[in-house]
Amino acid sequence: MADTVSVENISTAAAHRLIAAAEEKATFLGVPSTIAVCDTAGVLKGLSRMDGAALLSLQIAQDKAYTAIGYGLPTHQWHDFIKDDAPLAAGAPTGIDRLVVFGGGYPIKVGGVVVGGIGVSGGHWSQDMEVAEAALAALESELPAHTGVEEVRA
Length: 154
Fold this sequence. Notes:
The protein is of the alpha+beta class. It has one domain (6-153): Beta-Lactamase. Helix content is 44%, strand content 23%. The protein has 5 helices and 6 strands, in the order βαββαααββαβ. β2 and β3 (44-49) form a beta hairpin.
């Protein structure tokens, strides 16, 4: 019998629900934003650039999601991780491709397992965090009725 590897990823339907909840919060805050949802490989599952969101927010949102997936921790935690370590502080932001060290990116976890990441860009990083947190809270309120996970077997 062959070995089986199983990877759980955020479903497209769940990605769309995250984006809708994020857009609702961004609209409430008056901050046009770009919301990116990626699977565990950092590949886009869903993306929305709200009317009025800055062009650069497209790449920043995707990089925030990618960073959050890469180590399974929110992007704002990177600052505290590297700030007192001179070699990391000098090298990580420029030496690690797509690394973002300010808020707005979160891993998406189901049952403690990372199934994707969400990145938001459009306002101050603290506003981006609020938008992403609102999206995660909306998805979490649906669990376990709908896990929002697709299983990929190889």
